[in-house]
Design brief:
By secondary structure, the chain is mainly α. The protein has a domain of 91 residues. It contains 18 helices and no strands. It is elongated, with a radius of gyration of 25 Å.
Length: 352
């Protein structure tokens, strides 16, 4: 069996919608009465009081209170979660031009929460908020043009919106814009600019940017090749549980790039990524067991991991599973197949 050191070719999946919808404190002069009291209750995490005060102010057509009331229904804080009721309050605030409410209404239509999913309507609300400079709406609007959801796909227009949001420090757009320069979508391919943008997002702890920046240092794309820096960045992303970074760390330890070769450590990282469903890490575990690298040679477990990796039809995994089977008897093959079934039934937990 030939060992194939697999490194993901960066992460070119665009970051989509941030699911955490946050409450806001009034940014203008302090409101007297209910809104001021609600904001104070919110700061001390007294959600029941905050809900009651916001509801009173919202009934008086206060847009800030209407928005926050929608968020409380959205997140189930101070009241039972109710997406439809959240949408109702967001609409009241949005009708008054409240940008955050317009942006979140876009999310609700985008995801079909409390309303029927409607990408065209989502885009309409994103545009209203984006026109007011709302960075989140600008970022997501970039994704809509990038993917062609609710609007005709237009990479150049996606880049325009990503740039507006990135200029405000939006880490998702910094990352997504980096991907556009990395791949030459809507702009001329420019690895150096991709590195610059990945650095901005990575500095904010964005794991996908940390992974891609690590890869750029690993391969010497847009920056001088530096395995040690690649390792550092992979570790940052892996510490956040990012499977692709864990996979790449395993490969670095396996090949001794940027770190002393350590098969046992490679196994540890491959297992973490494999447990998250990464078929390349699962394949690499099969290789490690086949050769006895970082672990005792075990064709039963090699067969098991190749079998799991082969679920999606990977030809290398299927081929190596069959090679492992040629070195096993019928009882061992049956045991490996049972181990694979049990592992999948446990959602890849406690497989080894």
């Amino acid at each position: 069996m030939q060992f194939l050191a697999i490194i993901i070719e960066k992460n070119h999946v665009k970051n989509l919608i941030i699911l955490i919808i946050t409450l806001s404190l009034c940014a203008t002069a302090a409101w007297a009465g209910d809104v001021e009291d609600a904001d104070a209750a919110l700061v001390r995490k007294d959600y029941l009081t905050a809900f009651s005060k916001y509801k009173s102010a919202a009934a008086k057509n206060n847009a800030h209170a209407q928005y926050n009331l929608g968020v409380m229904y959205n997140n189930g804080r101070g009241v039972k979660q109710n997406y439809a009721e959240a949408v109702r309050w967001y609409k009241l605030a949005a009708a008054q031009g409240y940008a955050q409410a317009q942006s979140i209404l876009g999310v609700m239509y985008d995801m079909g929460l409390g309303v029927q999913q409607d990408y065209v309507e989502a885009v309409r609300w994103y545009k209203l908020a984006a026109a007011q400079g709302n960075a989140s709406a600008q970022s997501i609007l970039g994704v809509m043009y990038d993917t062609g959801q609710g609007v005709q796909q237009d990479y150049a227009e996606a880049v325009r919106w990503y740039k507006l949001a990135a200029a405000q420090g939006n880490k998702s757009s910094q990352y997504n814009l980096g991907v556009m320069y990395d791949m030459g979508l809507g702009v001329q391919q420019n690895y150096a600019e991709a590195v610059h943008l990945y650095k901005l997002a990575a500095a904010q702890g964005f794991s996908q940017a940390q992974l891609n920046l690590g890869y750029m240092y690993d391969m010497g794309l847009g920056v001088q090749q530096d395995y040690a820096e690649a390792m550092r960045l992979y570790k940052l992303a892996a510490a956040q549980g990012f499977a692709e970074a864990q996979l790449n760390l395993g490969v670095m330890y396996d090949t001794g790039r940027g770190v002393k070769q350590n098969y046992a450590e490679a196994m540890r990282w491959f297992k973490l990524a494999a447990a998250k469903g990464d078929e390349r890490a699962q394949y690499n575990l099969g290789i490690m067991y086949s050769y006895g690298q970082g672990v005792l040679q075990d064709y039963v477990r090699a067969h098991m991991w190749f079998n799991i990796s082969a679920v999606k039809g990977d030809k290398d995994a299927i081929n190596n599973r069959d090679i492992a089977a040629s070195k096993m008897d019928a009882q061992q093959i049956a045991q490996a197949q049972k181990l694979a079934r049990d592992c999948l039934e446990r959602n890849l937990k406690i497989c080894d």
